[in-house]
């Protein structure tokens, strides 16, 4: 079943849900019910509250009605005819009035004994085409009418729907696994980050263990970029408002933070993007064609005034630290530079076992050209280059209209994690417009001035989001090199503490992140604590180990590994850390 048919299936089920609800709750008012990514929903105005406990009987009624739903019939109506039909439903009347004002046609769709105001998009024969085991009512939530908090709160009933029962069951299983891996839950349990109401929503704070992970990621990506000739810079976190007026962010980017005014009346803005600062770094010195490509990089935080309803743990925040880079290049270097970026991206993804990813090329919305900088010619050229680059690298890609940045098209990479969910990470944006805007030049081989081309690139995207993805990808069980605690040293009894402390000190001297658990509690409890904290290795020390001048090594992933010497342990761990195991 293609995406269009799946949409029609889900939309048909939204109608079926409304029909079932109105048969059981005869005074309820149905409003709107679209298909969504994993199913459908419908919003209702109930005279008395309902709860999740009521879903089974509604679902049962849906299955009963489905047997009789053998054909969707459409009928075009006038405004007056439609208003008469829905005279007791103020929500439908509001929609009808809007359609009449726009001069659009009004259609009513009927299946079984249920008729709804609708634009269409249904299965021809729901009874035949819908597997009765392929859908399930999921949950109830509140939703303001038309998404406006000034309007009445309605009851939204969500349903899950797929082509087959097997696909539905697989999705439910995946979602249950995702709930176990929820980075907010694991972040709290493992002491990685916290969000304080007093500090503010969308402003996560990394705790010591979480900061270790971020630091390891920063050091790793910095070394990888330095190998490729990137130069790292440092910029302030604020700038004069005029910088962002010049870049176009003031007016075209709606997540800019409010301005601040100093004692002289000069206005400053917290940076939502790093590129305008980096442009000014480029312009601080003259450049020759021999200097290019010039790649400048920075791991730095930007601040965005995201809507509170969209904030989510580390995945959607107001302060995000980007592994940001800007490539200042000649036009003839675009394709080779993009190939280099993809090579870096693929090495990074392989390290985290992100081996399945897809490419989306985001272009401007041709119907809303006023949202973007630059001429048609420049946009067509930039979009064509990105598409040709993807073809040349033999990448499967899709083109997404309206998803481009206001100054240029981009390539977005979505990876699949260990349980099959997609995450958007790497971004490569091609920009001909800002170099014109900021008059960024280089002296060509011909001795004349030429405009540079800019690539805006982030491999991780943001460290916060990437950490959130990694927490869920690994279910908190990080590889050794990333783990906040790499080894736990566990003496069996108090008389083993002295030897255990020597092992602990040896590990610390060699830069291995170790903890010594010398509390007066039983061995089982200490081992359980190591497992609960998902520590990669733990070392057990008792009489036999002291007598043999060795330790017993156990692995989170491989179980008991037996006795080895202290120096052998250090060599083993340092080798795995160096090789990013």
TrEMBL record:
Its main location: cytoplasm. It is an enzyme of class 6 (ligase). One of its GO terms (cellular component) is cytoplasm. Its cofactor is Zn(2+). Zn(2+) binds at residues 275, 326, 456. Its EC number is 6.1.1.3. Keywords: Aminoacyl-tRNA synthetase, ATP-binding, Cytoplasm, Ligase, Metal-binding, Nucleotide-binding, Protein biosynthesis, RNA-binding, tRNA-binding, Zinc. Homodimer. This is Threonine--tRNA ligase.
């Amino acid at each position: 079943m293609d995406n269009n048919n799946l949409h029609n299936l889900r939309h048909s089920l939204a109608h079926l849900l409304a029909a079932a609800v109105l048969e059981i709750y005869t005074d309820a008012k149905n409003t709107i019910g679209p298909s969504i990514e994993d199913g459908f929903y419908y919003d209702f105005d109930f005279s008395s509250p309902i709860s999740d406990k009521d879903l089974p009987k509604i679902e049962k009624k849906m299955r009963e009605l489905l047997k009789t739903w053998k054909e969707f019939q459409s009928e075009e109506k006038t405004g007056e005819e439609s208003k008469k039909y829905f005279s007791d439903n103020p929500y439908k009347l509001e929609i009808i009035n809007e359609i009449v004002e726009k001069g659009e046609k009004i259609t009513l769709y009927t299946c079984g004994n249920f008729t709804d105001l609708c634009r269409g998009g249904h299965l021809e024969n729901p009874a035949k085409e819908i597997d009765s085991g392929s859908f399930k009512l999921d949950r109830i939530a509140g939703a303001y009418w038309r998404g406006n908090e000034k309007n009445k709160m309605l009851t939204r009933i969500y349903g899950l729907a797929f082509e087959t029962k097997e696909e539905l069951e697989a999705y439910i299983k995946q979602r249950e696994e995702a709930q176990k891996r929820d980075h907010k839950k694991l972040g709290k349990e493992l002491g990685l980050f916290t969000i304080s109401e007093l500090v503010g929503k969308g402003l996560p704070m990394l705790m010591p263990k979480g900061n270790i992970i971020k630091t390891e990621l920063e050091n790793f990506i910095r070394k990888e970029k330095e190998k490729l000739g990137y130069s790292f810079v440092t910029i302030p976190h604020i700038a004069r408002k005029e910088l962002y007026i010049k870049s176009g962010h003031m007016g075209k980017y709606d997540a800019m933070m409010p301005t601040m005014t100093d004692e002289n009346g000069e206005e400053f803005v917290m940076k939502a993007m790093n590129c305008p600062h980096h442009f000014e770094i480029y312009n601080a010195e003259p450049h020759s064609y021999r200097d290019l490509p010039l790649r400048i990089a920075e791991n730095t935080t930007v601040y965005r005034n995201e809507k509170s309803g969209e904030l989510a743990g580390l995945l959607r925040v107001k302060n995000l630290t980007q592994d940001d880079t800007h490539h200042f290049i000649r036009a003839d270097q675009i394709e080779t530079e993009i190939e280099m970026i993809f090579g870096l991206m693929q090495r990074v993804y392989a390290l985290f076992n992100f081996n399945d990813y897809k490419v989306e090329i985001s272009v401007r919305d041709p119907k809303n050209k006023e949202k973007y900088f630059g001429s048609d010619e420049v946009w067509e050229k930039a979009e064509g280059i990105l598409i040709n680059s993807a073809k040349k690298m033999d990448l499967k890609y899709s083109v997404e209209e309206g998803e481009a940045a206001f100054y240029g098209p981009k390539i977005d990479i979505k990876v699949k994690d260990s349980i099959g969910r997609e995450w958007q990470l790497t971004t490569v944006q091609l920009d001909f417009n800002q170099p014109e805007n900021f008059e960024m030049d280089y002296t060509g081989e011909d001795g004349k001035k030429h405009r540079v081309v800019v690539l805006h690139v982030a491999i991780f995207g943001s460290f916060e989001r990437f950490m959130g993805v990694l927490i869920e990808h690994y279910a908190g069980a990080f590889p050794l090199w990333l783990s906040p605690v790499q080894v736990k040293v566990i003496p069996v009894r108090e008389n083993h503490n002295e030897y255990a402390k020597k092992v602990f000190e040896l590990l610390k001297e060699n830069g291995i992140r170790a903890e010594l658990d010398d509390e007066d509690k039983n061995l089982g409890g200490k081992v359980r604590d190591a497992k609960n904290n998902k520590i990669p290795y733990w070392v057990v020390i008792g009489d036999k180990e002291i007598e043999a001048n060795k330790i017993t090594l156990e692995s989170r992933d491989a179980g008991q590994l037996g006795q080895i010497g202290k120096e052998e342990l250090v060599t083993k761990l340092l080798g795995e850390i160096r090789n990013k195991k």
